[in-house]
Amino acid sequence: MITTNVDISLQLRREGVRPSVTRVAVVKYLMEHHNHPTVDELYAHLVEQYPGLSRTTVYNTVHTLVDSRVLTTIEGSPEGMRVDLACNPHAHFVCDVCGAVADIAMELPEPPDQLSVTRTQLVFRGVCCNCKSIDKEKIN
Amino acid sequence: MITTNVDISLQLRREGVRPSVTRVAVVKYLMEHHNHPTVDELYAHLVEQYPGLSRTTVYNTVHTLVDSRVLTTIEGSPEGMRVDLACNPHAHFVCDVCGAVADIAMELPEPPDQLSVTRTQLVFRGVCCNCKSIDKEKIN
DNA sequence: TTCATTTTTGTAATCGATACAAAATTACTT
DNA sequence: AAGTAATTTTGTATCGATTACAAAAATGAA
């Protein structure tokens, strides 16, 4: 399943956003990397391919794409907000120890009818398996 | 349904937290005010009753009470994290225009079994009725 | 090309949040 | 009650993610 820049451009247009270079680059990166980068990590990766890219531009782009519901964000990480594609809505698990973020494939609850909801965020927080086993080592 | 400081102290002890003055004050404030204050708003209200209270202390207290699952936070407001009591778990609706936060009485989804989850956050985002009608006025 | 609109840039500044060590308070023991 | 250890609180200094803003560049239309 290959997604070209043209495909992404068309998808953005469909969502009502003009497919600028940076916007396509951000979406493409997120399609190819299923991590949940902070804006800074996103910038660090993209600037290698697009020298001269500004951190502010990445912030602007993320905001635009969140507004047009292409992206969603996970708030509350100490390192700053994390970015994810909004397609195939899913929940997230965040480890309070190491900050790792994992996708949880599950249906999101429907909001009450009378509310006009554009984004639903479901975040489970706790300790991931990895950090739990490290904790056990310390005790032993 | 009156809740005295003694009641709150006992409740905190039950949750494994020593009921310091500030901790009781924070819980009491949140029980009496069903708004969702930022740490700064919380501080502003409490400092009137406890002169000399430090903003840092409110931050410390909130962290302690979140760790011991007495409080929960709503992340992602531009004004900073908002604080709420963790009892009677419920969802939140946040208006992207005015930032207002409303409680939504509904069951929270159960996390997958294998995860050890200590906090579940369900946030609906959109435009509240108020801001929607203001928007209509502008159009007319 | 020319003009208007949109996007991007880059620096400066904002401001929520934290680090840290000293001071104050509390709990515990004798 | 006095002494001591542990906890809590304070307050300043600082960090760092995010934003403001205006200029520059790119894009699109006529």
What's a concise summary of this model?
Chain A contains five helices and five strands; from the N terminus they run H-H-H-H-E-E-E-E-E-H. With 140 residues, chain A is an alpha+beta fold.
What key attributes describe this structure?
homodimer; 140 residues; alpha+beta; Arc Repressor Mutant, subunit A; 41% helix; 21% strand; DNA-binding
| CATH structural fold name of chain A | Arc Repressor Mutant, subunit A
CATH architecture of chain A: Orthogonal Bundle
Name the CATH superfamily assignment of chain A. Answer: Winged helix-like DNA-binding domain superfamily/Winged helix DNA-binding domain
Structural class of chain A: alpha+beta
Strand order in the sheet with the most strands of chain A: 4-3-5
If you average the pLDDT of chain A, what whole number results?
92
What is the number of E strands of chain A? 5
Q: Quick one: biggest sheet of chain A?
A: 3 strands, mixed
Strand content of chain A: 15-25%
Question: What is the class of chain A in the CATH system?
Answer: Mainly Alpha
Span of the ends, CA to CA of chain A: 47 Å
Quaternary organisation of the protein chains: homodimer
- The residue ranges of chain A in which pLDDT falls below 50 over 5 or more consecutive positions are none
How would you describe the shape of chain A? globular
Helix-strand sequence of chain A: HHHHEEEEEH
Number of domains of chain A: 1
> Which two chains form the greatest contact, residue counts included?
A-B, 28 and 28 residues
Radius of gyration of chain A, CA atoms, in whole angstroms: 17 Å
Q: With helices defined by DSSP (H or I, 4 residues minimum), what is the helix count of chain A?
A: 5
Q: What percent of residues of chain A adopt helix (DSSP H or I)?
A: 40-55%
